[in-house]
Fold:
Amino acid sequence: MARIQINLPDAFDFSTDITLYLSHINYGNHLDNAMLLTVVSEARLRFLKSMGYTELDVEGVGIIVCDAALQYRSEAHHGEVMRVSMAACDFNKYGCDLVWQMREAESGREVARGKTGILFFDYAASKVTRVPDGFAVRFAPQAVA
Structure:
């Protein structure tokens, strides 16, 4: 079976530190695979908030997650602080990928990497909509042509 390969950008647009709680840990005494996405979702919310956005209001429209892929690189344990770095890239007409990397903050050990595909969504009309110009200008000025 072919393995997923996630290529990281040269630089990230945002980083945040998130402490792993007991609820993030599974019976194997390490970060649970489902909880990894919970931590990444929290980082995504913080990324948007850092720009004055929410998941329901990015330049007047919301976002929806359409897909996700990840690679585990090492175990993470209760009490460790994860530094999650994120970048918006690979834009198309309706969305982009949020590529992320999770490292243990103190040692820099890579724990996981991945990408989350987002689409911009007009909740009032209940349909996918174009990437807002203001968002695209921040990360992909060439996409606003």
